[in-house]
Every structure is written in structure tokens, then in C-alpha cells.
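User: Please look over both lines:
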Amino acid sequence: MSPDLVNLLKQQNARISEAPDGRIAIDHFGDVEQEIDALHESAVVCPLPDHICVRGTGQDRAKFLHNFCTNNVNDLESGQFCEAFFCDLNAKVIAHGYVLAGDEAHEIGMLPGDAEVLLNHLNRYIITEDVILTAPSAERTTFAVAGPQTESVLSTLGNSERFPDAGCCIRGNVTMLLTTWNELPTAFVSVSNGAAVQTWTQLTTVATAAGDSTFHHLRILEGFPVIGTDLTGDNLAPEADRNSMAISYNKGCYLGQEPIARLDAMGHVNRKLYKGWATIAANAQDSEELPIVTSRSMSAGASFPVLLPLSVKLAANSDPLIAKIKGGPTVQVDRLV
């Protein structure tokens, strides 16, 4: 993320936290509830310091990525994208995000994760293919724009940075993607660090500045997992419960395809990532055996959205379900989906 933008955000009273490894998070701009209200009523702009990009160039890039992810990259025209998992031979999750097709490159956009892990995984399979993979994340700044007025907000950007009708574009140092999360238009806009301050200023003239608390509220409502938080290398891709969006069952062979096909033939997984609504259960008995909430909204409401991995049997037979927020209180979780 642009250091100049970080300095500007501090001047704008952003609440910024820093992890022990030096990574920063733009938590909020003073009023999380107001930001969440703007998300549902108009539009918000959220800086994403941890957004990861892997870029593929070369004539064989589409075929190569197609062979190592769960969705159909070969059929993407320039300006189209798909959601996908990258897995090992046993269909265990390595990475997850969007694959964008451009005229001269394909890009993989991911939420917090380790680009080097994916690069090392993919590079080991490049033998004679004309493919070059790089990770330009440090040179870029990414924003999420979300809410009913998202497309109007995006129109404030210059002509060279506007969306094509197809939903994504890769033009030089600008990458843009427009999708839908929880029935709300949601865009990801990545620009060079040198253009970050100007882009932020343009977007926030017509949208509310918001932080990670608002972005992750929407992410949880969508059920979009963060690898290393909601899912780990012990999880199979279908356990994310995003099969219809991220897994093609007729694309042919790819790394991890056989276990995924077997699960499809079985008709179910034994565990998966659930969405639910939680309330603090102050009187519930704590236990190390309780399921763990991996992501929670920071909404101040009495009931707030959460993500938690559960066995399908436990989810079907627990009424109510008592769980524990990682590092936090015990909660009762209802309305599991």
C-alpha cells in the first residue's frame, strides 16, 4: 500500500492497527455503525492493505492457470473473470480468489494470504510452458467499493480507469473488477502506489470512507473465506461451500480434481464453512470443545454475522449452537446457512 496514502489516512483520523509482522489494517474512520449503514444505503470505499495479486504473462498463461485451479479459466474472454481455488493433489486449499483475464496478462486477486506460497506452488509445475508469474502487490494499492451506488461512484474515475461492460479490466497499472456480494455491487480497484492518493480522493468525494470492519462485515455476509483464517491447508475446496461460484464440475482434469469429483458424487461434505448470526452468550459454559468462530462482524448490534467451520452433523443437530469467538467470548449462533 502507498505510504503517502497511509499518511493521508492518518490525517483523516483513520484508526490504524499494526500486527507484530508489520502489516497494517485500516480498522475504521471513527464510527463503524455509520460506515455499515452507508454500505447498505449508498456506497463505501475501503482501503485493502492486505490485498494480494499474482500476475501471469506468456502465451500459455490461461491454459496453465486452468490446469491448476477449480474453475474454467480457458473459457474466459478478455474482460471476464471467475472465482477459483488453487489446491494440491488432494484438493486441500492453497489459495482462493478471482482470476481475471486481460489482453496481455491474467491476474489472481486474493484477500490476505501469502503470494509466495502460491507462486512456489505454481512455479514448480512450469517446465516448457510460456508462463511467467510475478507478485506486484507491493507496488499497488487496492480499494473495495461497495453498496447500491457503487457503479455511480466508479464513474468518478477518469475515462482510462472506467469499467468495461464485461466486469473486469487489466490496463497497465490499473486492475478493476465488479462483482456482487450479498446482493450488493462490489468492486475491487487496484492502482499503482503513485496513483493511490488521487484515486482515494476521487472515490471518497462521493462515497463514505470505511475500514476493514465494514469490508469484513460484507465479506462475512457473502461467506467469502480468508485463507489462513476461515480455511486452512487442512480444508478441501468444497468445504468452503462456494461450489456454484468457484468450482467447475465439467472443465476436465486439473490438480485436485479427482477428490473434488468424488465428493460431488457422494453428494455432500462432512464439514463446511457456515454463515450465521451470533449473540453473546454470557451464561453459556465455556469449553475447549466448542466450535470456533473464525470471522465475526464488528457491528455493535446485539446480533452480528459470523463465519465458522462446522461438521454438517453438528450444524443439523445443535439447537441452539454454542460456539466461541477465537480469543473472545462464548456466543449462541442461529440461522446457520
Summary: The first helix runs from residue 3 to 11. The chain is about 25% helix and 30% strand. The domain at 1-269 is CATH 3.30.1360.120 (Gyrase A; domain 2).
